[in-house]
Amino acid sequence: MDKIVIIGNGISGVTAARHIRKNSDNEILIISAETEHFFSRTALMYVYMGHMRFQDIKPYEDWFWEKNRIDLKFDRVEDIKTDVKELVMKSGSSITYDKLILAVGSKPNKFGWPGQDLLGVQGLYSFQDVESIEENSKNAKRAVIVGGGLIGVELAEMMLYRGIAVTFLVRESKFWGNVLPEQEGQLISKHIKKHHVDLRFNTELDEIIADENGRAKAVKTKDGEIIDCQIVGLTAGVSPNVAFLKNTNIEIERGIKINKFLETNIEDVYAIGDCAQFDQGVNGRRNIEQVWYTGRIMGETVAQTVTGNKLAYNPGPWFNSAKFFDIEYQTYGWVFANMQEEEADFYWEHPKGEICIHVVWDKDTGLFKGLNVFGIRMRHDLFDKWLRDGAGVDEVMANLSTANFDPEFYSHYEKEIVDQFNKETGRNVELKSKKWWRNLIGS
Amino acid sequence: MVIFLIGLAIFTTTPFLGNVKMTEAIMIESLNEQELINLEVPLKEQLVDKEFSTTYGFSRAFIAIYNAKNDELKANEEWSMVMWTKPGTVALNLSRASNDGVVTQNKWLFFFLTFGLGIIGPLFYIIVDLKLKGPPGIKNDGIYHDRATNRGWIGVLTGVWLVTFYILLYFHPYIMSDAISLTDPVKGLFKEGAMASQWFLYGLLYCISMLVMGVRMYIKYRHNKYQIVRTTSVLFFQVIFAFLLVEILPLFGLPGRDLKNAMPLDYTFLYKYNIQELLEAGQFGMFLIIWGFVLSIIVVPTLVYFYGKRWYCSWVCGCGGLAETLGDPYRQLSNKKMWAWKLERWLIHGVLVFAAILTVFVGIHTFTSLNGVNDGEGISTIIGISAFDVRDWYGFMVGAVFAGVIGTGFYPIFGNRTWCRFGCPLAAYMGLVQRFKSRFRITTNGGQCISCGNCSTYCEQGIDVRAYAQKGQNIVRSSCVGCGVCSAVCPRGVLKLENGPEAGRFGNEGPIVLGNDGFQLNQ
């Protein structure tokens, strides 16, 4: 029986622990310096906004861990002595392991801006970040958010709930420009502005200006404009949290270097989730993946390996989702910000401008490559199957109604979408639809 | 809000605005022969023409006389003269007839000051949300920061008010005599000069609460058509079936019954007086008897098979309707813990078993007595237990205390579906069908769940939806009433209420969530 120690109680580490327990009787210990129990990081905003209490974003009740014989330790790892398989803890104690899984997550990016460590300047990632923003938002009138991505929008929503005005500085010319194509970027930008966010494109942060107490009082942009504010939110991405490993034998670059089996350069030490950096991106993916879902998949995979079934990280087709204020977003397969050479695409937008669909396929073969959808829900299992089986774009379009996952009674737009698709592409797809009585009995 | 509070305050003070003076004529008119023989002398001595400033004071005095006389009769073993009507009921009738206070003199005015203000105030308060809360979408901001909805002092006060209301309504209605009388004019719209009972006041209040809070639902969920359609349905069934038809049918000499009320929720259906009344009502009554059986034995399980119990619980049912409108702000307060689920299973199925036994008992009694066994009294005791005692006890514990006082009174404390989750025997019955033989499920969308917990938090039935969703499993639970809010609040489009083939209704049998091609275990 091995003693398996997992550092980090986020989704990656906890998924690994759960699956190790499913497969084995090994001793399992999860160490975290953030919180005693696992919580859903993505839901922190809802606690601040009063949708839920902190206890509600814990996916398992507190008795779960003991019942499943998963030990928890609330302490910080200061050093790892890989030669003797020992962890040095902040509390002074030391912990030995047989196998070690590093699932230590990431940290908000700071790009060396002057004033980036002032009071009132912060990211939104950890439980502690929410505590500090609670403190920072007392008496705040305006927040400046730097970096146009998902976390930036969450932070904007949070600020607006507390009546704090938001100025949103985006380096690119549109929102989430490195991920979203032009049309979707515009659609979301409009929606953000509709919520009274002062959204500034092509604007970069130059420095953060301090008051006499060492607290941020304004930011200066590269154009020289000064914007008074009490909170500065740094949401320009995250990077692996690896600083504490600098003096260990574990190889680090931007993240903890691993092969496709999630193994580091040291035997019996693995890394998963946000903090891991593959020597080579798997299945054409980036070599550092900082997404909830990939963390979970890595956790499932490493659990197999450490319990004797050595497996390579082999995620299925890419998928992701998010919500921007009131608009939900889902993506399946690859839709890049800029179409590739061999790709053709089709974009449909509802006249009211809050629902759209963007389909990409191979120009020559008609092979379906991916889809972005805003304001409509789609079935993951169906798209997963189409992408794995190499379905053609015509098949996807013909079955859009089946793929729809919106709640019952919602308005459907598949007919408009397919009509426009046929008109624009000269293809001849016939939308499959069900008889009314089959809908009635749900067959 | 202020307008609402004024209306509420006036409503709450009505019990203190009475002016009761019972004349001899009223006494003679209101009491039946036996009561008159028993009570005429002491009432004349102590009550007639005496003034009371509240119906409470009057009723207390009356009940004291009534009980004293009854005790005396019992002590003397004059059983044929003992009065069996509840003294509170008689007190209510007398005080209704004798009340001549400011409220009863100005019924329409007070109706406007209470119900009117109580409607207008909240509507203003609700309608401004259209602008204040921004574009359509899920707006749960601040629910746990608001003392009305996080079990704060406003919530506790609301609970105290509701519990008091229910206790008075069920057990001491004479205190509310003035409040009841101000609905007389509305009752009069159905039948000239008719007097409202406490149940009319309750029915009216029920409908109005649902309609006003229904407007709130329409605004809150204006982006979500499932919620809009469902709310419309539940309002329709409450106002038309549970209220208007019940008032209108008697005008045509027909029994006023709520056609959608199925056994065993409707535990009075097989009571002798009910069946007898229906039998006497000719063809329509016969239809109601047959419908009662067809509804409970055929219609209910068939529809549950196709659509889940939601067709009843959150589309048709009155209790569900109130929970989904008036109770919606409190849905997050249901307990999600494992122990609560265990308690739920014991309680609700216990009530179901009990209700089933009661129904059989009462059914046997009614059948045998209508067929003249034992001189028309029927078999009233089975294995030494009196069917009357059992049903009275059930009516008190389950019908009044559980469904009313705890079920609704504790909305702001335990959430809005306490009765539906822990107590309703019909829900338990449908739940068993839904769990084991139904095409309904909540589908989890592959691996898109981020374990945020909105679904579990806003599940009024206390189902830990997330526990299933994060494993890629579908949600197949007997307690799910299909309100659709988990699907609505999900930020990632993970949940969908669906009817579909029974095969595969449980979804991913995992342990691996969709999106990982590394391996599949259960193939």
Describe the protein in words.
- The complex is a heterodimer of chains A (443) and B (523).
- With 443 residues, chain A is of the alpha/beta class.
- Chain A has helices at 11-23, 44-48, 63-67, 127-136, 150-161, 182-194, 292-306, 380-389, 393-398, 400-403, 414-425, 436-441, and strands spanning 3-7, 27-32, 70-74, 77-81, 86-89, 94-96, 99-102, 106-108, 121-122, 142-146, 165-169, 198-200, 205-210, 216-221, 226-228, 231-234, 238-240, 256-258, 269-271, 276-278, 319-324, 327-333, 343-349, 356-362, 368-374.
- Chain A has three domains: 3-107 and 239-306, FAD/NAD(P)-binding domain (3-Layer(bba) Sandwich), CATH 3.50.50.60; 121-236, FAD/NAD(P)-binding domain (3-Layer(bba) Sandwich); 319-441, Enolase-like, domain 1 (2-Layer Sandwich).
- Chain A contains twelve helices and 25 strands.
- In chain A, the strands form seven sheets. Chain A has a five-stranded parallel sheet. Chain A has a five-stranded parallel sheet with strand order 9-16-10-11-12, with helices on one face.
- Chain A is globular, with a radius of gyration of 24 Å.
- The termini of chain A are far apart.
- The longest helix of chain B has 33 residues, at 338-370.
- The relative contact order of chain B is 0.08.
- The model of chain B has no long low-confidence stretch (mean pLDDT 86).
- Chains A and B meet through α1, α7, β21 and α8 of A and α13, α23 and β6 of B.
